[in-house]
Amino acid sequence: MRTLLDTHALLWWWLDDAALPERTRRVIEDAGNEVFVSAATGWEIAMKVRRGKLAAIEDRMPRFEQAIADDGFRPLAVSMTHGLRAGALPGIHSDPFDRILAAQALVEGLVLVTRDRAILDFGCETLW
Predict the structure, then answer these.
(1) Is the distance from CB of 4 to CB of 101 less than 8 angstroms?
(2) Cβ distance 28 to 14 under 8 Å?
(3) pLDDT tens digits for range 80-120
């Protein structure tokens, strides 16, 4: 399975948070699956750390890309195609991070690992 982690999924993975369901955890840790982390997730996390909302992972920021690689995850850049698809997605869901992640999942054929049911309106496959 090829998956893309929503920001909360990555954070809960890193924090070993019980909010991440065991089924989802097994998919993420399965070496047979490809797990991607979007540049948009890095952007969102960096903003939250800067605002003092994520002190628990502040130490990972200088080595964010390495932390992703250490977990066996692959970075996913945001392309023009992703941006255009995100802007064209239907619905009133206005969170730009959710829109870009949904667009990336659709364009790249990835399953979006998220608990956000509103993302279903974008038509991408989700896992939680």
Answers:
(1) yes
(2) no
(3) 999 999 999 998 888 999 999 999 999 999 999 999 998 98
What are residue 126's DSSP bridge partners?
112
- 44-94 pLDDT per residue, tens: 999 999 999 999 999 999 999 999 999 999 999 999 999 999 999 998 888
pTM for the model stands at 0.95
Q: Which residues pair with residue 34 across a beta bridge? A: 2
DSSP 57-73: GGGGGGGHHHHHHHTT-
Q: Quick one: which H or E segment has residue 2?
A: strand 2-5
Q: Give the alpha-carbon dihedral of 6, 9, 10, 15, to 10 degrees.
A: 160
Task: Find out whether 5 and 36 touch, Cβ atoms under 8 Å.
Answer: yes
Helices (H), the chain: 7-14, 22-29, 39-50, 64-70, 80-88, 96-108
Residue 24 CB neighbour total at 10 angstroms = 20
Gap between the terminal Cα atoms of the chain: 14
